[in-house]
What we know:
Elements: E1 8-10, E2 13-15, E3 19-21, H1 30-38, E4 43-45, E5 62-65, E6 68-71, H2 80-92, E7 97-101, H3 106-119, E8 123-127, H4 134-139, H5 143-152, E9 160-163, H6 170-183, E10 187-190, E11 194-196, E12 199-200, E13 205-206, E14 213-216, H7 221-232, E15 239-242, H8 248-257, E16 259-264, H9 267-271, H10 275-287
Parallel strand pairs: 3-4, 3-16, 4-7, 7-8, 8-9, 9-10, 10-15, 15-16
Antiparallel strand pairs: 1-2, 5-6, 6-14, 11-14, 12-13
Helix pairs in contact: 1-2, 2-3, 3-5, 5-6, 7-8, 8-10
Flavin mononucleotide binds at residues 22-25, 47-48, 62, 69, 71, 73, 75, 100, 127, 163, 192-193, 216-217, 220, 242-245, 263-267.
Amino acid sequence: MQKENLHVNVGDLHLRNPTLLAAGLMGLTGASLKRVWNSGAGGVITKSMSKEAREGYLGPRVVETPCGLINSMGLPNPGIESMLEEIKIAKDSGALVVGSIFGNEVKEFAELTEKIDKVGAAAIELNLSCPHAEDLSTIGQNPKLTKKVIEACSGSEIPIWVKLPGNTHISNLVGVTKSAEKAGADAIVLTNTLPAMSIDVTSERPILGHGVGGLSGPAIKPIGLRLVYEVYEKIDIPIVGAGGIESGKDMIEYILAGASAVEIGTGMMERNLDIFKKVCEEASTFLDGREVDDLVGSAHKN
Length: 302
Ligand SMILES: Cc1cc2nc3c(=O)[nH]c(=O)nc-3n(C[C@H](O)[C@H](O)[C@H](O)COP(=O)(O)O)c2cc1C
C-alpha cells in the first residue's frame, strides 16, 4: 500500500514514493528489477549499460569497510541489446524503469538513449561519474563535455537525468550542474560512489583486483547531503539524492537538503529488499500527515 503523502514528482515524472533502486545493484535482469519494484521501490534503475558487452574488472570487486562498501566492478554488463529484453520483462510487471547508460564517446550516448527511449523506459540516467572508470568521471567533471553529451541525447522523448561524480570541487560541480541544466538535463543525480581503496597488510597489496574503487554506504551520506545542499540553490531542475540512505530519517535529510527523490543501493545489504518499504514507512511516520513534496529544500529556509 503506497502512502499518498509520499507521492513525488521528479520534474514531469511521477513516482509512487521517493525511493529508487540505485544503478548497479539488482539491476541486471528483468526478474531482479521486478523483485525490487514489488518490494516497494518507487522506481528501479538498471545497471549501467554500454553498447557492447563488458566483462568488468578482475576480482575481488567488492570489499567491506566499517561504514560501507568499496567496489570496483568495472561496469560489467551484457550490452544494450540484451538489456533491452530485461527492461521489457521489468516493464511488463508494471515497474517504472529508468535506464542507466554510459558510452565511450558522445555519439554512443546518443545511440543508447534512442534505444532506451524506444523500449518505453520512464527516464534515462546518464552515468557520467563512475570513479574507477577513469574516462567517465572525467566527463562529469567537465562542464563542456557534460553539455556535449546531454545535447547529443536531446532528441529523447523521456526525461534525461545526469548522474555526476561527488569527487570534484564544489564550484566545479556547480559549474557542471549549471551546464547540464542549460543543455537540457531534466534532473541531476548526486552522488555516485567516491574514490577509495583498501589495502591488505598481509600481502601488502590493494585488496580490490583493480586496485582502487568507489566508496558507498553510510560513510558517504554526509558528503552526498552536502553536495545536494550546495547544488539545490544554484539550479532550477530537480535533484535525485544518493549515498548512504538506509532509513526514513536518512531520506528525509536528503529531501530537506533539496532532493526530490532518492536512490538506495548499499543499504540493501543491511536491510534486504524490505528497505524500500521500511524507509517509506519510517518517513511517513515522521511526516505525520504532511506531504513529502512540501519538504524539498526546507533546510535552506531562514
Ligand atoms: C556494487 C556497486 C555497483 C554500482 N554500479 C553502478 C553503476 O553501474 N552505475 C552507476 O551509475 N552507479 C553505480 N553504483 C553507484 C550507486 O548507484 C550509488 O550511486 C552509490 O552506491 C551511492 O549510493 P548507496 O550508498 O546507497 O550505495 C554502484 C554501487 C555499488 C555499491
